Amino acid sequence: MKWLLVALLFSAAMLSGQMRPGAKVEKTYGMGLPRDMAKLLIDDHEYPEYPLKPGQEAYKDVDGYRIKDLIKKITAISLKSLDDGEQYWGRITGTKYDRMTTELMADEFTKLGLKVTRQPFTVKELWYPTHWEGSYAAGVRSGPLQTLFPINETRPTAAEGITAEVVWVGVGAAPDLLGRDLKGKAVLVYSTFVPGGRSHSASERAGLFNSDTLVTKAGAAMIINVIAVPGNGQFNPEGAPAGVDAVPTLTISQDEGFMLRDLLATGQKVQIRLKLDIAMRENLPSQNVYAVLPGVSDEEVMVMAHTDGFFQGAMDNASGMATAIDIARHYAAIPQAQRPRTMVFVATPDHHHGETGRDLMIKTHDWSKVSVILNAEHTSQTLLYMYNADLMTSNAISARRWFASGSPAFQQLVKRTFQDFNVSVYQVPETRAGGSLGAVSVFAPSFHIIDHVIYHTSLDTPELVPAVGLGYSERAFLKVIDETNKMSMKEIRGTEKLPNPVR
Ligand SMILES: [Zn+2]
Q1: Residue 31, by phi and psi: left (phi above 0), alpha (psi -120 to 50) or beta?
Q2: Distance between CA atoms of 216 and 155, rounded to whole angstroms?
Q3: Are 353 and 126 in contact (CB under 8 A)?
Q4: Whether the Cβ atoms of residue 359 and residue 348 lie closer than 8 Å to each other
Q5: Neighbours of ion ligand 1 (CB under 5 A)
Q6: What's the domain range around 114?
Q7: Residue 299 Cα to ligand 1 middle (Å)
Q8: Cα 275 to Cα 447: distance, rounded to the nearest angstrom
């Protein structure tokens, strides 16, 4: 009996998130991760690691394991917010965890001898879910729904909550909705990666849930997206339905979503009760952090990284932040006389919340001196597959989106260097830079890689950010920077108006 109780408490603790996702408890993992997570995790040493080729010796000081240690320092801040009881946890702009994160960047750059300055700003308005809870009831069965997660900018429920009957509408496309009475219902939609949980098939991006979406027009009470990843992951894709008809829109794990689906399949009525409180927080203090490493000339190489992130945000964007710090370490170890250009590192903390910091940087920076911009964002990830009813990890590094804007010679340099340094990328590059780089790419030649699969989810843990891949991408970045340092600003930029992406 006592054993049963212990077992029940244990699984309740895991489900309620009391146990940290990613915390190693004899390889038992808590809420927010795929089934069989203990089995799926790969030791960093199990990824194939190719030796440096002749000519790459200048980069042998780059150690993916050291970058990964930095990532864990950063994700520890997120885990602290979870431990402190934040349901909307991570490195959220305007919170004290945001401040801890930008101060960590400032500390690391200072330790390396860079000159650090802070650029304060105010976040005017921050959508912040303060509390939510959901449960289901079907006949004699009832229980909590533990993996519900509100999608950014969604509407709250009334203070007393909503109770609504559940209907399953398949993938939520128009034919799935024909003839369905959705008025006042909790609409359950099955939603797949395209190619990540952030851009899932039912997201606003996919066009199913725009403001005049069929579901909201039909008067649904709430929308719940079952994110098609085996297990109990939590997901916070941006872009909940907006507009006057918008209703509370949340995600739920596949395991819980299928539990509801299977109850519906027995023919009984299933009800969901949801209470979602949202605060609009105003005028929150935040700051950009700049760190400068002087070179021979005052022409600049800029390295930018956004610092905010949902959940642990190990790849998004602790990977980019740690890479930026390690790039500073690499160049700080070289005498100034051998650094042709000044290096400027910029950490911006509100990529997911309006880009106030980045826009301030855009406004206040002197772009005439910037020779090239590297955006360090989502640099390494384990390649995953859907495998029968489960998720499968592999010891390969996932290919990434990429972008290179500037002269054809610069674009070819970027492409060739990625290949030379084992950095797998998509066949077709971005035509508009994604992530934090977009709005900056008009000001100077720029490049990045950006993984696009596991982010804005509790699956974004350090265990799925391979050290080997971190090393590969940083070495490629360093090589591109070194080669551009042999080119004039004009040669990097070319003659066309920026951004001039690869065609
Ligand atoms: Zn990001």
Answers
A1: beta
A2: 12
A3: yes
A4: no
A5: 316-317, 377
A6: 34-121+283-493
A7: 27
A8: 44
Over the chain, what is the mean pLDDT?
Answer: 90
* Residue 211 confidence (pLDDT): 44
Look at residue 19 and tell me whether its pLDDT is greater than 70. no
Please tell me whether residue 384 adopts helix, strand or coil conformation.
strand
pLDDT at 186: 96
User: Distance from the CA of 36 to the center of ligand 1, in angstroms?
Assistant: 27
Is 252 found in the same domain as 166? yes
- The pLDDT score that the predictor gives to residue 204 is 67
Ligand 1 centre to CA of 315 (Å) is: 8
User: How do beta strands 297-306 and 341-348 pair?
Assistant: parallel
If you measure from the C-alpha of residue 439 to the centroid of ligand 1, how many angstroms do you get, rounded to a whole number? 14
Q: Which of 278, 310, 340 is the last residue of a domain?
A: 278
pLDDT over 70 at 425, yes or no: yes
The mean per-residue pLDDT over the stretch 120-140 comes to 96
The Å distance, Cα 106 to ligand 1 centre, comes to 19
Domain final residue, candidates 220, 245, 278: 278
Ligand 1 centre distance from Cα of residue 7 (Å): 38
Could you tell me the distance, in angstroms and rounded to a whole number, from the CA of residue 376 to the centre of ligand 1? 9
Distance from the alpha carbon of residue 317 to the mean position of ligand 1, in angstroms: 5
Q: Say what the pTM is.
A: 0.92
Q: How far is Cα 198 from Cα 275, in angstroms, rounded to an integer?
A: 23
The answer to whether residue 448 sits within a structural domain is yes
Amino acid letter for position 79: L
